[in-house]
Amino acid sequence: MSHVFHRATNPITAVRAEGCWITDKDGNRYLDAAGGAIVTNIGHGSRRVREVITQGMDLDYIHPSVFTSDALEAYASDLAKVVPIPDVRIFPTSGGAESVETAIKLARSYHLARGDSDRSIVISRRQSYHGNTLGALGVSGRVPLRAPYEPWLGTPVQAPEVCEYRCPNPDHPSECAAWHARELDALIGSLGPHRVAAFIGEAVGGATLGVAAPPAGYWEKIAEVCRRYGLLLIVDEIMTGFGRTGHWFGIGMADISPDIIVSGKGAAGGYWPLGICMASGSVQQAVMQAGGFVHGYTFSHSPTGAAVAHAVLEEIIESNLVEAAATKGKRLLSDLKASIGESPVVGDVRGVGLLIGIEFVVDRETKQPFARSERFAESVAGMARQSGLLVYPSSGCADGITGDCILLGPPLTITDHELDLVVEQLSTVITKAAT
Q1: How would you classify the pairing of strands 392-395 and 157-159?
Q2: Beta strands 346-352 and 275-279: pairing type?
Q3: pLDDT more than 90, % of the chain
Q4: Are 29 and 21 a contacting pair, CB within 8 Å?
Q5: 404 contacts 370 by C-beta, under 8 angstroms
Q6: Residues with Cβ < 8 Å from 43, sequence gap 6 or more?
Q7: Please, which residues bridge with residue 31 across strands?
Q8: Which of 184, 276, 326, 355 is most buried (CB neighbours < 10 A)?
């Protein structure tokens, strides 16, 4: 009997992993086309990272309210070179949700520092997901995950979701970016601009929307609205950061500099529990000059975590993995569209870099989703796992409850042969699921 409180029933016991492959205790091998949970951007078993972890550190634990470390300072210095925020400040945490908690508290603290004590509202988007801690879940729109905890969460303030396949703009595809900006502008106006602290959105809609990239010009117009009313713009890059989209960060597809970027997952590639809240120098300075940031975590600013993340960053740079994600992602998306794009149960195949979403429907013409009771995405993922392929199932992409999809986010190190295997095995699985 296991004394572990597992997240799944009868989990598989993994014993080793290398590159894009995981091996279980019975010798079965799994092609990790999901990168775990879109985490392992540099692949499993990096010798560089393992050496950092196993060689030991001069520092194990230091309290971040008293000490810093050379490892953290060096990492922050190199990371700053690729973050699209001027004079950026790096606040490491233990994961993406902690980074979101940090960001929304920082937004509130910034406005308090400026004397705008009425600014407390954080606007997010419908069908968004920013993490499972109460603060992060409170600004999320993923209904099934919120449902058990609604008494603690309050009512979220949300702008329309961004999904071109199921776009809420009545005039879609005409001027969708401008429509979203007008909707946000009207929402801010109805709330009172003096009460709104920030707007948070995923650079590319992830688990809840099945990789929904915004229309061209979306972020530029949203940024204009935020600047007009004095809101801080927070971009969630937990799933899309560190090369996943073929850019260092997904917001790199737009010509803007957010006030805050939050990240996790690929920041340390799965080798260490790490998240990062990255804020502009002007935001950090305003807060610190007003008395400091009333916020912190026992295990933030970890020297070892910084050393591991630094090794991951160096591997991404030296192996040209950002460029690889762009090139390989185009190939994977094209091959998937050719292989499964006409399947009667596939409504849309979409993606940015090596982040691909496949949405399933009952009727391609009407885009009718499967009933949630059918658990179609889970069924596809289960069949794929039985064939030795790991994918990331999700639901709710149609209306928050129904709408099945799977995500692919393999390591950016994936080979051409392994890409072929992903397409081949997934095509077989979806053909079987459609019958």
Answers
A1: unpaired
A2: unpaired
A3: 96
A4: yes
A5: yes
A6: 18, 19, 20, 269, 411, 412, 413, 414
A7: 21, 389
A8: 276
pLDDT of 155 > 90? The answer is no
**Cα–Cα distance between 255 and 222 in angstroms, integer?**
12
Predicted TM-score (pTM) above 0.85: yes
Residue 347 three-state SS: strand
Given CA atoms 424, 431, 11, 370 in this order, what sign does their dihedral have? positive
Q: Which CA distances in Å does 55 have to 52, 61, 308?
A: 6, 16, 11
What is the SS3 assignment for 428?
A: helix
31-89 residue pLDDT tens: 999 999 999 999 999 999 999 988 877 888 999 999 999 999 999 999 999 999 999 99
Distance CA 202, CA 241 (A): 10
**What span, in angstroms and rounded, lies between the C-alpha atoms of 119 and 198?**
9
d(CA 314, CA 120): 38
Nearest to 92 by CA among 273, 232, 320: 273
- Residues β-bridged to residue 108: none
| Cis before 173? omega within 30 | yes
Tell me the backbone φ, ψ of residue 251, rounded to 5 degrees. Answer: -70, -10
